[in-house]
Write a structure and sequence with these properties.
- With 144 residues, the chain is of the alpha/beta class.
- The protein has one domain: Rossmann fold.
- 48% of the residues lie in helices and 10% in strands.
- It contains five helices and four strands.
- Helix 4 links the parallel strand 2 and strand 3.
């Protein structure tokens, strides 16, 4: 392996570790600085303007699950949260354990990557990918 490739891999691993270590702080801040409420309001406004398909719906890159819970509660749709980060999914499960999503069975969170969703084509009515497609490592053409 040449030095350039080795250094690129080391930088990529370091960046992934740094992003993962920031997740608890981001989730805590999101609950206190209005980010979650703002994203939920923007999403609700955008969805109100559309003729919406039936479910299930997916929130890809669901993070702490706030949008999953809000969408399920306000639309009555089955909404699944998808994230590739185990720490994000752990936050989502803990955050929603006492809320409305706790009544959903099976649990509404799945470890998956947006490039390889665990549903066949056509089985999902709507896919949200808020703050997801712009992240490092995402093949935008494939994601769209």
């Amino acid at each position: 392996m040449n030095d350039t490739l080795l250094h690129a891999r080391v930088r990529a691993r370091s960046a992934t570790k740094a992003r993962t270590s920031l997740l608890p702080l981001l989730f805590a801040r999101g609950q206190t600085n209005g980010w979650e409420e703002g994203m939920q309001a923007v999403t609700a406004a955008l969805l109100r303007r559309q003729s919406l398909p039936g479910g299930p719906w997916l929130d890809v890159g669901c993070g702490n699950g706030a949008q999953v819970t809000a969408l399920g509660r306000t639309t009555g749709q089955t909404v699944w949260g998808i994230d590739r980060h185990p720490l994000a999914l752990a936050h989502a499960v803990v955050r929603t354990a006492a809320g409305p999503a706790a009544e959903i069975s099976p649990p509404p969170f799945v470890a998956a990557d947006l490039h390889h969703l665990p549903w066949p084509n056509g089985a999902v009515g709507l896919i949200l990918a808020l703050d997801t497609i712009d992240q490092a490592g995402v093949d935008i053409d494939a994601a769209l």
